[in-house]
Amino acid sequence: MINKISSLLFMLFLVLQAESQEKFYTKTGKIIFFSEAALEDIKGSNRTAAVVLDPKTGALDFSVLIKGFEFEKAVMQEHFNTNYVESDKFPKATFEGNIVNNLAVLYGRDGSYSGIVRGKLTLHGVTRDVETTGTIKITGSIIETSARFHLLLTEFGIKIPSAVKNKISNKILVRVECRMEGVE
Hints:
elongated; alpha+beta
């Protein structure tokens, strides 16, 4: 009987702890994109994405400054900002969505959960529906998320000049990794 009461109190503590965390947040979310092409692979990374997760509703919001993407070659970074994503005209990308299966994520219990994320990605002034499956790992008051998905540049109005069609793929692999802490 004492074990049952102790277990019940522990479960109640976990639930209350999860509910006391209003939202989870980071300013250091990592977004990496990769373009594989016949002549040259292109990889850009940004470690300054602002991310907010509301565990009660599953709402998930991202915002990243485009000029924050870094490349191995300075000329790639310049062409990326000037010729492709036009970062002066479109300075940030955003995602507003939800973890569709949020009820399956036990925020008060350490573990790894599969999450289906669906929402709207805005890039280069164009908004498109995006859906992907990712991982939500909970360790104490830390939530780590990761996901991968593909996007097509042409769907976001990003044009590839004919002179470099063989260098840049229209299909881009995007990886997102975030480590968030609870804020009240």
